[in-house]
User: What shape does this take?
Amino acid sequence: MASSDKMTVVCLDLEGVLIPEIWKGLAKLTKIDELKLTTRDIADYDELMEHRLKICDRHNLTLKDIHRVVEQIEPLDGALKFMTWLRERNEVMILSDTYREFIRPLLHKLQYPTVLCHSLKLDGNYRIVDYCLRQKDQKRFAVKAFKELNYHTVAVGDSYNDISMMMEANQGFFFRPTEKIAEEYPVFPVTHEYEELRNALEGITTNGPQKSH
Assistant: This one.
């Protein structure tokens, strides 16, 4: 899959690409519909997180409540097999706007991949006081850094917060985006199944490092 003169690093989003959306799971568990909103619905990440934290505060939800959801989450059907195939052939980096404290209970289910994400500020009762971004637009800056290290970069995502890293990468692919997002960004090929995504990634070998957009 790599070009003849460069190693390839594939940067994957986490939620929606490898695992179900955590906040949607929390909404279902708590029956709080307002928590169903994700980066597929709201493009401004700060606006989305402020909305979420206000709801958590209003309903006295803590990290322990979120872990009740996360502990029940399983990788999407076929995700682990896809990850194994991908890691045998390329460097793989998961770039996510989730939080280390959220996902810790499920990392073993993905065989402990490398995940670059954010962190939370908690009080003594595990209430979420604030969120701490590692860097604003961190996905794009991570892809940019890999390019500067002379990697051929590929980015795969499904939401608004993935667009900048997909734009920055040598090649970007959607995986199960909403029709709305796919229509807004028609430059990115759309895949819906892991086999389809695998075939697209394998095609990079013959197509070389040209940008897909």
